[in-house]
Amino acid sequence: MAEIGLLLDGKVCSDTLSQVEILAAGLSRRSDMKVRIVVLGAIGRDSALWRRRAALESCGVKNGNGVKVFYLPGPRGARAIDGVNLWRCEALAGCTLLHCFSVSLLRTLGSLGAEKFLPSWCMSLSHWPGREAVEQLRRVGRRQAVKVICQSKGLQKALVEGGVPAEHCPVIQPEVPAEYKAEQRSAARRVLNLSDEVDLILADPEISAWSNHRHLAWAGAIIGQFNQNLRVLVSGCGEQVERLRAFDDSLNPPSLGIYPGERFGPELLYGAADLLVLAATEAVSALPLARAGGAGLAVVASNSPALGEYLQHEHNALLFGMGPHNAGDSTRRRIRPLATAIVRLLEDRDLSQKLGQQLAKDMREVFSGAKLLPAHLEVYGQVLGK
Fold first, then answer.
1. Which of 54, 61, 48, 63 is nearest to 18 (CA)?
2. What is the pTM of this model?
């Protein structure tokens, strides 16, 4: 019987956690497999894991094949732990395969010392992890056939261009949780203590150096000069969110952002919002687009090729790019077109509704019938040589 360990950082976002939950529940229904979830790093009260830990611990009990959940906080967390310590810990005893969902654990899994002690492993990526991480994956790929599961073709292409062998980068798109349904707008806003008059922009829920949340905060400050009802809703927790909040405070007008951490689920955040904005220039997860489609939200997104797989300008989204006639560096030339696109959809509700309806239709086709478990079982068999 195979025993699979799903490795998470304590600061995992809601979208990634939803994929872990779906996968764990599916694996627990199989008689030839056992699954455990291992969380490395502190779990704060604002984290998605704090909100969902009871559901995680019970998902296997319902199926008669218990999912074990281990927490390794503090000094044995994601940053401090090394390959030898990870191998020695009780949480991984007996595992035949590790499936990692956090880039923060890549250095540990990919180290030379870890290879001698740890079982076979694979990794899931929802967004571009950065050049350093890609270089690490490229080096690991020379020594062992580690599979890097990509959520989109755009991410797969970026990894291959970075030197990761194409045969090591299968694409498995995310699965929308079956129970997902956006909350009603007024009810969601009451929970967030916001009035119906507020123009609420939802940022990409995945915080990274390439999601360009600062660009959105800057654009929000420009719009805020003329629209006092504008607010930007930013989920997620950790150092990057705190730095974004400090940056937001330095703008004029300051503090237009709302930062609830991960205390609320996506169904509430998408239900409360007027727009979803993806300002990323690199590959990001497509799951926010599926959620936006389910909520009927219009989307403003970068005209990055990585998003062209799902979005078409003025068909199911409003795309923006650098304004060639705007002064300043490449960053500054993106801010005003981003702000202009947001204002256009906030002011033209008919266009916003049209784009939201088309996105809903397109995303239903993209995600129809997509199931995580069969595709992952195929990858697991390849990693284990079966």
1. 48
2. 0.90
